[in-house]
Amino acid sequence: MEQAISSLLGHTKEERIRFFLKLHKQETKESYPLKYGEDNIQLPVYAIDISYPIYRIENIRTLNAHKEYLHMHPELSKDFFDDVEDVLVQQVQSDLLFSLAKEANLLQAFQKGLVPNKPLILSLDGTVLDGNRRLCVYRYLYHNFPKQYAYLKDIKIALLPDSDPWKLHELEQELQMSNSLKAKYRWYDEAYSYMMENEQEGTSYEEIAYRLRLPRKSQVLDLVESYRYAQSYLKITGHENEWSLLDHDEVSFLHLVKCRRKLSGIPEKIIYERLVFALMLRKSEKDAKGLVKNIDFVFANEELVLDELAGELQVDGSDRKALAKEITGCDLPSLSLLILSVIRNIQDAENGKENQYHALMQAKKADKILSSMITMKYGIQDTKHLSELLDNMEESIRVLRSLYKNDKSRSE
Questions:
Q1: pLDDT of residue 37
Q2: pLDDT of 169
């Protein structure tokens, strides 16, 4: 990308702003229809030198990529991306955009001549609102293959009447709803943009969903909560801000959000979250459905799964707080092996592959109940009734011993 950047920011900020203010006053025969804020307007369209526009650093597509870039380059200051006029910042942004363009096959499409006829949309200060990836590819082609792509020296742009940051943010989200060549935002970039709008502008998630004409009001909130759990997951696993690791995990985190919301107790919510994180540690991109299936299985069989885990961890299963403390204290790799083993054993028992395992689970439960009666020293006044129950238990145990003894003899 070095050659594509060589003439980037070939103009000072003052020169660029003066250029676009003067350009905006010029009459033009071509226009581009657009809804901007509450108004339907016709933007004037001009042909300008490719060196004038600058990339929008607040681009929704790259917000989390910035975090990851800073994580991978600890020598840079945390406010590195704040100076949008800095040549190095624009160069890094160009590199990030170029990677996104290649992922979306934009470079290949443009090389085949599939260049969109629509103009780039710029704010009045020359910042690209819509078409950052396209501009990046145009510059790459023009600077690396100047003879073949000489026509890209001048590009079409539609100029907005101002540079209002929140109107630009809303417009960027609106434009995401259209255009066949426009790849969908990565789920975590989309979520982060909603979260920032809510925190900085005070717009409710319901209002955002309504503005974007989403079918469900909770759709935005679900995505934001998924983002927060993903943030925790990355931190716990030692990959803070490495968002590209979660490109394919939107569905998994959405399932975590929706299932966890249905659980009533706080300990159960904590346990479920930790178990999902443990399952994700063993995820496979080739078997994303398998991960979601396991997440749903743990939720659907909550009581059975937790009782089994309690037995394995030697914790009183009836004390969910103690179980939550024990599970959150486990290292995630060990917990991932344990939960997968528990899921497998329960599924085998349900499928009739290991009927004895089911009996063993029931025996474990009975043992725990009896043990708790001894340790807690229950004061039962009706000793006659208790004696009868214990006699029944002893008879049941005698029958079970006889059954399993016979099974063992036959198998030998």
A1: 75
A2: 80
Tell me whether residue 325 is exposed, middle or buried, using C-beta atoms within 10 angstroms of its C-beta: 0 to 12, 13 to 18, 19 or more.
middle
Provide the pLDDT for residue 384.
67
CB 91 within 8 A of CB 8: yes
Low-confidence ranges of the chain (pLDDT < 50): 1-7, 180-181, 354, 410
Cα(227)–Cα(241) distance, rounded to whole angstroms? 11
Q: What pLDDT sits at residue 42?
A: 92
Spatial contact of 54 and 85, defined as CB atoms under 8 Å apart: yes
Tokens coding 17: 């702003």
How many whole angstroms separate alpha carbon 290 and alpha carbon 60?
Answer: 30
* Tally of CA atoms within 13 A in the half-sphere of 83 that contains its CB: 12
Q: How far apart are CA 319 and CA 311, in angstroms?
A: 12
How far apart are alpha carbons 273 and 233 in whole angstroms? 9
Residue 39's identity, in one-letter code, is D
Q: What is the 3-state secondary structure (H, E, C) of 220-253?
A: HHHHHHHHHHHHHHHHHCCCCCCHHHHCCCHHHH
Chain centroid, CA 288 distance in Å: 14
Q: In this structure, are residues 146 and 42 in contact, taking their beta carbons and an 8 Å threshold?
A: no
pLDDT at position 375? 59
Q: By the 8 A CB rule, do 24 and 44 touch?
A: yes
Q: Could you report the per-residue pLDDT of 108-135, keeping only the tens digit for each?
A: 888 887 777 789 999 999 999 999 999 9
What is the enclosing helix (H) or strand (E) of 361? helix 355-376
3-class SS of residue 46 = strand
DSSP for 48-107, please give it. Answer: EETTS-B--TT-GGGHHHHHHHHHH-TTS-TTGGG-TT-HHHHHHHHHHHHHHHHHTTHH
Starting at the edge strand found earlier in the chain, the sheet holding 31-36 runs: 31-36, 39-49, 154-159, 120-122, 128-130
Computed from CA positions of residues 266, 272, 276, 281, in that sequence, does the dihedral angle turn out positive or negative? positive
Query: Would strands 120-122 and 154-159 be described as parallel, antiparallel, or unpaired?
Result: parallel
Q: How far is CA 136 from CA 163, 170, 319, 326, in A?
A: 21, 22, 58, 51
